[in-house]
Every structure is written in structure tokens, then in C-alpha cells.
Write a structure and sequence with these properties.
- This is ABC transporter substrate-binding protein.
- Keywords: Amino-acid transport, Signal, Transport.
- It is a single chain.
- Helices cover 41% and strands 18% of the residues.
- Helix 2 runs parallel beside helix 12 and helix 3 packs parallel to helix 4.
- With 378 residues, the protein is an alpha/beta fold.
- The longest helix has 20 residues.
- It has 2 domains: 203 residues, Rossmann fold, CATH 3.40.50; 148 residues, 3-Layer(aba) Sandwich (Rossmann fold).
- A hairpin with a 2-residue loop joins strand 13 and strand 14.
């Protein structure tokens, strides 16, 4: 896999020789390096793998996809530069990417101005609420994650919690969304702590939560290494309270970073991809997630991740829209918005002019970590 930081590249370089017949130009900018590489690396690999597969199977209506892929390193300024280059120099007809909320918002503004359809791979609700005409996304929103978590807390009789949130774009957005929807679920936030992206010890904040009378559980909106540190510190402090994490850490990498013992019992909302082997045969997502998991793991020799799944759905959705829209960005956008009942790794998507996510809470699975692996709660 080759990613390019500063120069436009031909699909011949990216896709290993298939570019001579390429006719439809697809752009992508993901965070394959830097602090968000755990998101962007599997996304980049998935995008390349799927474009190769599509081209090997005859492309889009007989036309090959010419992929131009950039690594923005998680830097919103680079993401904006690459998005502009994709539109103005590479002349792509659609864009996939934005591994983080910050990079997504940079790409979003360029895509809207240029009237090029864009599918984001990030979680924050502001990406699609309010609806932007040219912007869609594949991950569940942070607001949905709050609702799924609070629904599970209700079932367990939990009404009073402590919250410790990252101050990054995703963490801050989810913190705000959880505060907003908590009253709907009769959840009272008794303690509200934060930590920065570079913080390496959250014991002071966790100690405050532990010492807050009445707290029944801890919720940690965040992604990256922060939630793993929170999980380890909680175990080190011997805090005997249920811990809920966000879907931003729904990967085996989180368990490895936190340590299986510390992560034991942690609950979070995730996708069918993480529990592919234990899904019932009747689940309509099972064939999709098992096929993607097998293809990815065979090609790259590493465990598939939720984040790669977001890219899988984005490429598949975009390629289906291209079958109708061809090389016309407006027609591709219209075809995306008309998508109904598409079964992906993340859920079953049905877009509309009022909804550019197309998922509801049924697309989330409540997962619990047990013996270093994932178990399905509902």
C-alpha cells in the first residue's frame, strides 16, 4: 500500500497497473499515519482492497475506478489541502474519507463548495445534522451512541453516572450529546471530568468520580489512546463500577492497549463486524460482515476493525451510486440519497433528503468485553 502526502498520484501507482483503463476518478483522504492511524490505516487498506476488487470484477458499468488516495495524518489543514487538490487538480467525481471529525469538517467545506459527493468515516453528529446536500456518512453518530448506552443503563437500573470525556473533536461532541439526551433516559450526570489528547494519566479525574457520592457507573466518550488509559487507571484504582466506552474504541486494538484484565466487563455500542462469528444465521448482515472479514484478513494478515468497516460501506455505497450516476457528481449524489435497504457492515442504510446517515439504533449492537474478546449483549 502506498499513500501520498504532498503530490497528486496516478491510479497506476496506487492500484498497481490498472489505471490505463480507469475512467471514474474517486478521491480519498484518510489518517493512515499520526495519532488517528488506528482509524485511518484500516480505512486506507479497505479502500484500496475494495477498489481493486471492483476493478477486477469489471469496474462500474465496464469502466475502471481510478483511485487517488492521500494520507492527511489526522491534520485538518492537510485534509483541506488534499480535498482541494482532489477537486481542482485530480478532478475526482466523489470523495471518501475524513477519519476524524476534525478532518471531516475540513473536507466537508470543500466538497460542499465544489458540489462533489462526500462520504465521511467519522462519528460526530454535526457532520450530517443539519443535513448538507453533498455530504453523507457511514458510522453511527455520537448521539446514537449515547442513546444506546443510556438504554442499556436503564435496563440495569443505573440512573446516576460520572462522565470522563476526551477534549478532542469526537470526545467533546459526544460529551455534549450525552448531556443533551441524558434527561430522556432519566440519567443524572453527577460528575463531569475531561482529559486532553496527550494526557497519560487520568487517575485524578477518576478519583474525583469515585469520591462523588451516588455514582453507579462511568461513561467515557472518547477515542484513541485516552479511553485505554482511562480503562487501565480505573482498574489500577480498584474502582468497582461498570465502565461504558464509546463506539470510537470498538476494535481489538482497544483491548490490547487497555489490557484484557483491565478491559474485562467494559461495555460499548459496536457493529456486527466485531461479533461476526456469533451472529445468528438469520441476521441479514452476517454474509456481508463475514465476507469482508475473510477478504481483509486474508489480504493483510491482521484482524479486521470497525473502522475499516466504515470504509467498506462507503466504497460499496459510492460504487452502487456510480452505477447510476457514472461520472456525474450530481447524479452520484442523487443516487446516494435514493439508496434504500443497503446492507453494510455497520447496519442497513436507507437515506433520504432529510437523513444522510440512514441508520437507526437497531444498527448498533451492545457489546461486552469478556476474556479478551467480544460478546453480544443484544
Amino acid at each position: 500500500m502506498k499513500l501520498f502526502m504532498t503530490t497528486a498520484v496516478s491510479a497506476l501507482t496506487v492500484l498497481g497497473g490498472t489505471a490505463a483503463m480507469a475512467d471514474i476518478k474517486l478521491g480519498a483522504s484518510v489518517s493512515a499515519s499520526g495519532p488517528a492511524a488506528f482509524l485511518g490505516d484500516p480505512e486506507a487498506k479497505t479502500i484500496e482492497m475494495m477498489v481493486d476488487q471492483i476493478n477486477e470484477e469489471g469496474g462500474i458499468n465496464g469502466e475502471k475506478i481510478d483511485l487517488v488516495l492521500y494520507d492527511d495524518g489526522g491534520d485538518p489543514n492537510k485534509a483541506r489541502t488534499f480535498a482541494t487538490r482532489l477537486v481542482e487538480d485530480d478532478e475526482v467525481v466523489a470523495i471518501i474519507g475524513g477519519s476524524t471529525t476534525g478532518t471531516t469538517m475540513s473536507i466537508l467545506s470543500v466538497a460542499e463548495d465544489a458540489e462533489v459527493p462526500f462520504i465521511s468515516l467519522a462519528g460526530a453528529i454535526q457532520i450530517i445534522d443539519p443535513v448538507h446536500k453533498w455530504v453523507f456518512k457511514t458510522p453511527h453518530t455520537d448521539r446514537m451512541a449515547c442513546e444506546k448506552i443510556f438504554s442499556d443503563m436503564q435496563k440495569k437500573g443505573i440512573t446516576k453516572i460520572g462522565m470522563i470525556s476526551g477534549t478532542d473533536g469526537f470526545g467533546a461532541s459526544m460529551q455534549a450529546q450525552c448531556k443533551d439526551v441524558a434527561p430522556k433516559y432519566a440519567i443524572e450526570i453527577l460528575s463531569d471530568e475531561t482529559y486532553g489528547p496527550q494526557d497519560a494519566d487520568m487517575t485524578p479525574q477518576l478519583t474525583k468520580i469515585r469520591n462523588t457520592q451516588g455514582v453507579q457507573a462511568i461513561l467515557n466518550p472518547g477515542f484513541g489512546q485516552g479511553p485505554a488509559i482511562v480503562t487501565r487507571n480505573k482498574a489500577q484504582l480498584g474502582i468497582d463500577l461498570p465502565l461504558y466506552e464509546s463506539h470510537g474504541v470498538a476494535s481489538d486494538g482497544f483491548i490490547e492497549l487497555a489490557g484484557a484484565a483491565a478491559a474485562e466487563g467494559v461495555r460499548l455500542p459496536g457493529t456486527a463486524l466485531l461479533v461476526a462469528s456469533i451472529l445468528p444465521e438469520s441476521d441479514p448482515q452476517k454474509p456481508v460482515v463475514t465476507a469482508y472479514k475473510a477478504a481483509y484478513e486474508a489480504k493483510y494478515g491482521e484482524t479486521v476493525s470497525t473502522f475499516g468497516g466504515y470504509a467498506h460501506d462507503a466504497v460499496d455505497l459510492m460504487s452502487h451510486a456510480m452505477k447510476t450516476g457514472g461520472n456525474d457528481p450530481a447524479a452520484i449524489r442523487d443516487a446516494l440519497e435514493a439508496t434504500q435497504g443497503y446492507v453494510g457492515t455497520t447496519g442497513i442504510y436507507s437515506f433520504s433528503p432529510e437523513d444522510h446517515l440512514g441508520l437507526d439504533l437497531s444498527a448498533f449492537k451492545m457489546l461486552e468485553i469478556h476474556d479478551g474478546g467480544w460478546t453480544l449483549i443484544d
